[in-house]
Amino acid sequence: xxxxxxxxxxxxxxxxxxxxxDVANTLRSEGIDHEVLxxxxxSRDGTTxxxxxxxxxxxxxxxxxxxxxxxFGLTVRAGLERFDGEAVAILxxxxxDDPADLVRYHRVLRQGYDCVFGSRFIAGSQLHDYxxxxxxxxxxxxxxxxxxxxHGYNDTTNAFKAYRREVIQNIQPLVSNHFNLTVEMPLKAxxxxxxxxIVPISWRDRGAGESKxxxxxxxxxxxxxxxxxxxxxxxxxxxxRRPGFDPRAGRGAGARLAEDAGxxxxxxxxxxxxxxxxxxxxxxxxxxDGQPRAAARPGTTEWEGRLWGSHALHPEAERALAEDCxxxxx
Length: 330
What we know:
- The chain has helices spanning about 15-30, 45-55, 70-80, 100-110, 130-150, 165-170, 180-190, 215-235, 255-260, 265-275, 300-310, 315-330, and strands at about 5-10, 35-40, 60-65, 85-90, 115-120, 125-130, 160-165, 195-200, 200-205, 310.
- It is α/β, with parallel strands linked by helices.
- The chain has one domain (about 5-235): Spore Coat Polysaccharide Biosynthesis Protein SpsA, Chain A (Alpha-Beta Complex), CATH 3.90.550.
- Helix 2 links the parallel strand 2 and strand 3 (about 60-65).
- Helix 7 (about 180-190) runs parallel beside helix 8 (about 215-235).
- The chain is globular and about 50 Å long.
């Protein structure tokens, strides 16, 4: 499976070179077929020149200027219209996301999930130097989103996610021009019946440059995206769900694996799965035959799999939930 990594960049001359090099070298060292597509959001510095200078060293890297106006969402959408892979991940240009997490994303997608959502706030994740004010706002906003949609995911606003190509096709049209695209895309994917796994990721604050996220101006735009998704849930009667969606059964790795992998690749996947299943952060909520595992205790979220499609939660987070329930019901 070829993985495209779309990196939107605006005035990131000081960070983009190291970010692109780290991503490309990490994926190459793991033998993952890939491309890195940097989309320049009308930078006023040498962002494009830095990326183009890497071309002789990194042939899988390319850069394009966004054909749309300025805006994070518009820039990502431009990349989603032009990526070559069978799956695509969106990664920030400022070096805050760990390229090693792309390897985990790729393996989970090969397991058969349609989407992989990273969380910075579950067991196994690492968070470094997150600004305190932003952290409070982030936690309150994501709690509200989780309560509204009951999707079991506590970091919806995080941009670092991966999707299969058919998901990108099915969540069209994308209408967000700015950072609220990070909310529109996963919510549409979930609402329209695509399976997803939640895995812990690492995040650190940027080392150079300035953040482009303006909290004051984004509030109403995030609200628009949430209302858009909420109305789709309650008014469209499932008109936009993926073909073949069955709300009575989860959708897991089995069918997808049979479709995508030949005998040798299937054996390799089985071997990797056996090894990965011992690694913290590996999703284990869906059986190999594609059926959801039964909820074994209070506090699990298996009903969400029946409502939205297959859903996986980090096993250490499950254990934390179980311990919390034990304390509550003791």
